[in-house]
Amino acid sequence: MSKHEIERALIELRLSGMAATLETRVLQAQASEQPFLETFCMLLQDELDRRRSRLTERRFKQCGLDERLTLADFDWHFNPKVPRQACFELHTLKFITEGINGLLIGKPGTGKSHIAKAVAYQATLQGYGVRYVEADSVFAHYCLASPAEQVKLLKGMLEPDLLVLDDLFLARRISDGAAELLQMVVHRRYKLRRSIVVTSNRIVEDWGKYLGDNTMSTTILDRLMHRSALLAFEGKSYRLKEAASRIASAGAA
Questions:
Q1: What is the tens place of the pLDDT at every residue in 204-237?
Q2: What gap in Å lies between CA 236 and CA 76, rounded to an integer?
Q3: What is the pLDDT of residue 242?
Q4: pTM (global) more than 0.70
Q5: CA angle at 84 for the pair 98 and 95, rounded to the nearest 5°
Q6: Beta bridge partners of 197
Q7: CB 140: neighbour CB atoms within 10 A?
Q8: E runs forming strands in the chain
Q9: CA atoms within 13 A on the CB side of 251
């Protein structure tokens, strides 16, 4: 077979990673008089790398994240009250294998969403199924959706290894339908031992007010907190810092 025929055969066999690097690997082998098996191993590794990369990209596109945040991007020095050690522990993802939840509670602008998104992104890189949602938006969408769409939305929140509910109770009071959805998701994921990460500006003691039902609040919290890590975020707001920097820059200009 000619090189062109080999490339066509690799593509037909869906070995695009090997096809993409075949010419380079052949030249490399000729230049260094490399043994066949060594060259073949490199081609196989190219294929594996391509498949892993495409799978990771697919998981990212499906998870709902709109940015690829990491803990390396986080300014730990600006706000020393952020629970750094606990954030890095969450980032190890052991909590997912153990079916533990993460509750990131505290003042606005202190970095809760950044940490949650960084953990979610790390989980996609490590091969976990992840679903990230802005809580108020998905609840509003669910309440207005058709029954078929509701089933699909619920399935999307139950199946992943990790569900991130960002900014829970941002609008304070949520509708009865949204409260029932939250209770259903928490209850079913609890039984499946699938992890949830929640971020919220509202202290857990006030959740009953926002749900409009203290019994429901107790039921939700009982399952969320039974196996959980609670991270308290205090201190200065990163968003106010960034706003002040922009104002200062505009004034200087």
A1: 888 888 887 677 778 888 898 899 999 999 988 8
A2: 12
A3: 62
A4: yes
A5: 5
A6: 102, 164
A7: 16
A8: 101-106, 130-134, 162-166, 195-200, 228-233
A9: 6
